[in-house]
């Protein structure tokens, strides 16, 4: 940091006298319709602007020279034009964009909207980017099927704004793209900041920032109907959008709606049923004031899949085996159903004070519910078919570890009896029917783990040109979050009732009538369908963020300095008095207050209009995520021991080349995290209780190189090459704290020996080479992709002194237990073909894309180690380190997406 | 109407059509109750099976089919991975390598068992049907259960228990549901099982060849054994020459009085409310963590040392109490057997507060059962009645007085002390 400021100060003073203003002007048109194209992004060197309603743009460049203008907009091919700037303004003339449906409509990104696990579901960064940067485009579309994360960052390091409203989730910090899923048309205008770079709407983040412009006056005037057919998450998608543009009466309206549905996706038992609505209205009050309303929702219900072990996949010869469904009355029923619906309302005010000053403000409210169902049971067998005791390798014998006959019989049952390999719903019902005869409680139920959230937002930002070279951006962001967490009885599965006690505590504290109560205020409550039970608590926070940024542009240099300061308060409110924590679960907890800040600076050196070097640096501190703040929020308001503010230091440096027929970027980056915290929650089958395990005081380093290059080798053919090579590692030994949900054991703290481990969950090497043909409105894209350096997320328990206790030095079991597992890399091929046709005043776009054309079904996209170790009967030494192998996800095999759209 | 309008209408209609007609399944019908029906007959009684396979682990090679009613299962956790059935001739324990068997095999369920391919054996005398494990009778692996055990119709009433007397048990009653009437339990006031081990409890005045055996995993293991006379039923089991009764759940215990606990000290983790007073000798009362008891011995440095040591309780409030019984377990070893009763005595006081025992007035209590004095086995003291003079008093103390000489010294260990109404 210090180094950076020392570098900056002389630059400020050496600032050269201003050149007379030079501009590149032009007009962007639709090549097919001849209509002006608004909201297109126009870039030259390190500068950018967007086109107005008439398609025109003015780009001030400051210095004469050769420039390459790059024009981008979703739905169009990226277009480059060479411009020579001498004196005064250079006119680039009419730039014709050729419509393309290849990327935006390929459906590629939608895979990630319906990913498998709870985490993966929302953890995909960079979704739906479209920019002139070939690296970002490829990373967000092509790599998304492998859950690639830019620079290895989780999505909580990418800030998403909608009309300036920061919409990242209040607890996980993540961008929840599903909240506007199916509204591709209405969310096509966006501004994207790569990495740590700042922009006019935000000081940015660590892993990029995106601001969606949804105001109706900026939406393309059109009526559009499209239908898609696919075999990924859903089978059908129907989307209808109508936008008026800014009408003569100074009103603008946008309506958009869609439905996505299918009885079964690529994975067995996964259905999809999603609607989406969007309404935008804007009134231009006068030349200085406009008022806009944006309202949208995407109510979705879908069946989830789950990860299994390789043993199960191999046995069934299916790497996409899904244990969450089974037959009920001969029909497929999924036990893990996710429903979500979080409507958002944004009221925005745009105020142009003078030609140099504008203020953009918004007030927003969202409120909604997300739920995921799951089976639960009381004093009964685990109904999940792939529970370890149901597997062929768990067939104990003596002296053999596994009985070969029962192993073979179990494999046969798995392969031939669908009620063995899938959930046997009819048996669950029958079990409850037998309980009914004895007037006993249901033994199997389907519960819904709910999160009901409420968000209030108030934001305002000021953009002002300061002097000839400066530009100031700054703002205030206020928000209040409330997330209510509880379980709902979804289905008693034919049973009569359920009793709200904790069965795990019941097992451990047999005569203790207090500890086993989930709610001491309502002991032994009888639960019927629709009732809340189990746990019921709210997490709340108030947040204030102030940011300011000054950007300077000179002929040879650009630079900026920025800072933000934030205050954050959070607390828990318990609505149940839990028997395991009677004094620390009910009512409002202590309020925790944090102050944090960030500073950023960056510098661009323009070698010429076509070559430049740019560097960014940032130091950021962040409060703990609300999700991680309480170690066992379901039972107690106890804070996670040792949790503290996260500190991030990050920097990158890029070399950018832009010619009309060749553009490239090479970036090297390094990010260091200190005091990183993670919280895991899992069921411990030995102790028969849920365990919360935190890792605090964790340090990580993410470093790597990004390369993106695009060359137009023929008028009709471009070649694209993209490489992301990273090295994301743990750099210290974090502190692990184990907390037992049923209170049977006191918290234990231990050192987790994971120094130099790799950060899992994303390929650290992702690369792609693509060919793009474009002629007569035919588009063909062919991409070959290679992924490697993929590591499994590790189980901290395996890397503790306890795990290897009583093993002698050099015992091979130590390595087996503690080594991190690397997953195989692999190759995929993607193909897209598209065609745009004009029939009178109607435009038809047809697009057909096939992902993973070669049907590579052996590419692990991620997974996790089971949080369990097989100890000997005395419990003091590991017995079989491979007894609980990791659970894995595989990237989809060959899938297709066919889309046809009409527009007028 | 221009073409645009027509198309707009068509689009809207298309949208509606798609949305309405393409339903994604959301609600599921509840499956009907399944009333199982066995279509093959039984061809042997349980008694015939037992007679035909009398060994400790015999493979059932013939097509033997038996049938019986489930009398016990693992619902309460007192049985683990087994069910017990009986027909009109005998009972039989079925060993199955599966947990939560009761969800399929409720008490009262009629089952048919195809025994061919299973193993019939005896585990320390107890007949079991299962499979082979390490050369001995063991559990039938889970994957085979469906091939051998078949439910027939819905569960009905369980068989009527056979009323027996503990002194007149025989092998034909084993594995059957039996009932003992008008009996008293020796360990009233204690729990059915210790927290960490399966525990045997006996009948008051009952034969030593009969125990009530309860697993610490039973959901009623932590419940206090009632006093008075009552009826108790369960499955009669056998371990060599000892008969064991396995209670299925607390409904098997009827007619007793529930015991009110006035004072309890397990000595599991410390001396608790008790404190030692050493009058003679260097050795003192202490806590033994490994055997979870209070312990005193005058033996140190390979020699006996004369001692007089008292272990005195905190104040016990017996206000408003009209009856009281003291129970504890103790073990005595290493001393002169002749001195077991004289050197190890129990006392009571209502005016002692602190300091030397002589500051209070003490009365000696009669302990019905002493250990033999030559081993480490804990025995129950039996019921030590609290004399009437101490009932209704607020400051009652119990003391254990230990004596030994320079020539001989015993070790006295005490645990599980309880005073009940």
Can you walk through the features of this model?
The complex is a heterodimer of chains A (904) and B (421). With 904 residues, chain A is mainly β. Chain A folds into 2 domains: 2-97, Immunoglobulins (Immunoglobulin-like), CATH 2.60.40.10; 110-377 and 446-903, Beta Barrel (Maltoporin, Chain A). Chain A is built from 10 helices and 50 strands. In chain A, the strands form 9 sheets. Chain A has a 27-stranded antiparallel β-sheet that branches. In chain A, strands 3-2-5-6 form a 4-stranded antiparallel β-sheet, with no helix packed on it. Chain A has a 4-stranded mixed β-sheet with strand order 9-8-11-10, with no helix packed on it. In chain A, strand 13 and strand 14 form a beta hairpin. Chain B has 421 residues and is mostly beta strands. Helices cover 9% and strands 37% of the residues of chain B. Chain B has 4 helices and 31 strands. In chain B, the strands form 5 sheets. In chain B, strands 1, 2, 3, 4, 5, 6, 7, 8, 9 and 10 form a 10-stranded mixed β-sheet that branches. In chain B, strands 11, 12, 13, 14, 15, 16 and 17 form a 7-stranded mixed β-sheet that branches.
